[in-house]
Amino acid sequence: METRTIHVPGFTIGTAEDREGLTGVTVILAPKEGASAGVDVRGCAPGTRETDLLNPIKTVQQIHAVVLSGGSAFGLEADSGVMRYLSEKGIGFEVGDVRVPIVCGAVLFDLGIGDPHDFPDLWMGYEAAMKAGKEFPVGCYGAGTGATVGKLTGPDHAMKSGAGYAELTLESGLCVGAYMAVNACGEIYEGNEILAGALAEDEKTIISSHDLMLKGFKRILGGNTSIGCVMTNAKLTKAECTAISGMAHDGFARAIRPVHTTMDGDTVFTMASGEMEAPVDTVGYLAEETIRLAILDAIKTAEPMGGRPGWKSFHP
Question: What's the pTM value of the predicted model, to 2 decimals?
Answer without folding.
Answer: 0.97
